[in-house]
Write a structure and sequence with these properties.
- This protein is an alpha+beta fold.
- The strands form two sheets. Strands 1, 2, 3, 4, 5, 6 and 9 form a seven-stranded mixed β-sheet that branches. Strands 7-8 form a two-stranded antiparallel sheet.
- The longest helix has 13 residues.
- The termini are far apart.
């Protein structure tokens, strides 16, 4: 019997706050590590991370927000923005939450990797090297392509539609 490949799954939490002309802003993070250094376009992400079959996606989104931002997710009503399959095959599930945190207070977790590659030297890097509040237009330019759909779904939700439909 052929082995079944496990679908990789991630869950995340997209904070938003209402603001001026754009209507709202979202909190996104610039991915850490040497691969993303110096990149801006398509180098940002919704705070999210992988989870296994033993963990509920909501719990994973809450845990990953805490790990990546360095503070617990704020209290409030979570709005389901549904799922999207990324180009690499991972399925990402995202919720939105209206909250206003100071991006400068983030204390991201770290990961280790050999760098430079082949050097035998293991270094630590922040999972996310900075966070920023962005208008939907700014976020669409910065986010990795497969996560941009969540901006549209949040916009639809805030306009009175049903965000999780997709």
């Amino acid at each position: 019997m052929p082995s079944q490949k496990r679908t990789r799954r991630s869950a995340g939490l997209l904070l938003f706050r209402r603001s001026g002309e754009a209507g709202f802003e979202v909190l996104i993070g610039h991915m850490g590590g040497p691969f993303w250094a110096g990149r801006e376009s398509a180098a940002w992400s919704i705070p999210k991370g992988e989870y296994g079959p033993e963990e509920e996606p909501e719990a994973a989104a809450r845990r990953e927000f805490g790990e990546e931002f360095g503070r617990p997710a704020p209290d409030g009503e979570w709005v389901a923005l549904g799922e999207a399959r990324q180009s690499g095959g991972k399925t990402v599930t995202v919720w939105a939450l209206e909250a206003d945190l100071d991006a400068a207070t983030a204390v991201p977790g770290t990961f280790g990797m050999e760098w430079p590659k082949g050097s035998g030297v293991r270094r630590e890097f922040p999972e996310v090297d900075r966070f920023a509040w962005c208008t939907p237009q700014e976020a669409a330019e910065r986010l990795v392509t497969g996560q941009r759909v969540f901006l549209d779904r949040l916009r639809e939700h805030l306009a009175g539609g049903r965000a999780g439909d997709a």
